[in-house]
Amino acid sequence: MHDVYLAWRYLRHHKVRSLILTACLSLLMGLPLGLHRLLDEGEKRMTARAESTPLLVGAQGSAVDLTLNALYFTAAATPIAMREVERIAATGWADPLPVYARFKVRGQPLVGVELDYFDYRGLVPERGAMLALLGDCVLGADAAAALKLGPGDTLLTTPDNLFDLAGIYPLKLHVVGVLGKSHGPDDQAVFVDLQTAWVIEGLGHGHAGQPPSPAGAGPFAEAEARAQAKLVTYTEITPDNLDSFHFHGDPADYPVSAVIAVAHDARSATLLRGRYLAPDDTAQIVQPPKITQGLLQNIFRVGALFDAVSLLVGAATLLALGLVFALSLRLRRGELHTIFLLGCGRLTVLRLLAAEIVLLLLASGSVCLLGLEVLHRHAGDLMRRFFIS
């Protein structure tokens, strides 16, 4: 007991040295454990999200980009035509859920969906209401916190190119609700219905605030109305001008990023996958669980490399700590001589040094456990913010 007390008093007297040693040992113990904790959390979340989306239909190309776009609203995916939704529905084997994730608004992904998407993901408004009118939007829990908006506020979309004077004007969205926290990518999204997303795309527009055309009805009036619509700095959809909003072209040609195919059973899923085997098909069907598994294998390879690097760094750190202790013994030569003069043997000196090492390890272990506990509580947010999103 006296050895521990004397060791404690010595470590307190040399606070800076003790703190540096504690920090080194804490990092040495905590980094590999923290990395594996993050990898486990990432695997759990990515696997759960992928398994809840068994089939995805999108344009031919990168299956990884298609999966990341539809599940995490991140990588850009080549759009497909809305008629692909009708193609899936016509088979009777699956329910199609189109997703259009192309735009961002103040750094948050803007996602166009149909109301069935919210039922499929189990998303319900915690405040306000669900989408009802053109121009409405609902915010994910994290998006509402980041944008500091709630029901009754407005949100202006971000134009694609600020220097494109002839480009698409921003649309003022009406925030009608904030979704409950789902601990997934949906928390960071701003959801609108598909028609609103197409208005933002420039496929639909209204002529609110413009004087009536003196040319009357007809193609010339339509052309003039389009020209007048270009004069407004932004477009806002209100109950007064809602009826004036309309779309041009065939709705079957309108774009969506991907279509979630919710098959009725395993047989229906197999039959539906068989419909996309033609080599000249412009669309492809992918299984997100398999794509995600491939991504996780790459992440685990990086984790194994990090483990090897951590092992080398740990060995170097231990050698450095051993050198510090050896030099410390030389500096403490006078102190140790005094201990011998007081009648203490070499075993007492060894006990004192061992007590110092044990106290340092206990302090480092406590700091490491505290850091791991903090990481455990925020692992999901860290993975979503810095790795998945």
Please describe the topology of this protein.
Elements: H1 2-13, H2 15-51, E1 56-59, H3 63-72, E2 80-81, H4 83-91, E3 94-105, E4 108-113, H5 115-121, E5 125-128, E6 136-139, H6 141-147, E7 154-156, E8 171-179, E9 190-193, H7 194-201, E10 204-205, H8 219-229, E11 235-236, E12 246-247, E13 255-256, E14 258-263, H9 266-274, E15 283-286, H10 288-331, H11 333-341, H12 346-388
Parallel strand pairs: 4-9, 6-8, 8-11
Antiparallel strand pairs: 1-14, 1-15, 2-13, 3-4, 3-14, 5-8, 6-9, 7-8, 10-12
Helix pairs in contact: 1-12, 2-10, 2-12
Give the CA-based shape: elongated
> What gap, in angstroms, lies between the N and C termini?
53 Å
Counting DSSP E segments of at least 2 residues, the number of strands comes to: 15
Quaternary class? single chain
Structural class: alpha+beta
Gyration radius over CA: 31 Å
In N-to-C order, the SSE pattern is HHEHEHEEHEEHEEEHEHEEEEHEHHH
Q: What can be said about the biggest beta sheet?
A: 11 strands, mixed
Poorly predicted sequence stretches spanning 5 or more consecutive residues: 211-218
Helix content: 40-55%
Number of H/I helices:
12
- Mean pLDDT, nearest integer? 82
Strand content: 15-25%
